[in-house]
From TrEMBL:
Annotated protein name in UniProt: DUF2062 domain-containing protein
Residue stretches making up the DUF2062 domain: 30-156
Highest rank taxon of the organism: Bacteria
UniProt source species: Gemmobacter caeni
Transmembrane segments: 49-75, 87-108, 128-150
Keywords: Membrane, Transmembrane, Transmembrane helix
Zinc-finger among keywords: no
Amino acid sequence: MLIRRIRLFFAPVRLRRRALVLAGSLIPSRLLRRLVRLGSDPHAVAAGFASGAALSCTPLFGLHFLLSFALAWAVRGHILAAALGTAVGNPITFPFLVSGAYGVGTLLFGVPDHLEEAGMAVILRDAFLVTLVGSLPIATLAYAGTYLLLKPALIRLRGRGG
């Protein structure tokens, strides 16, 4: 019985259907429709989504949800919209976001000189700090850009009836 359930779970037709549902939920038009349906103030939805989008640009993996909820609360944003905004950071975008943040961090800090003869713990710590500092301008731009694009779109779509 268990083997049959496992085989059904991993059947190619079902896996393809699950992948299409997951990919379909990340399509911008469907995501925008979900944000319109939240029914909250356009500022709250836009601020919440922008909070999630901004914090998903940081290398604080595993903390994106919690930090986006805290930022959304601080800017009076919608908590569920913040959770949806963290979808900006995904396995496809993470390599670009992290390498971009490291590049910005090296522009701001410079590459630490002592990394050549340092141990692995020091290298990881310093590289993480450079990446974290470099992700802050990217996160700020992501927040501003997302908020400034999303709020008028929500107002316009709600005016048309969604």
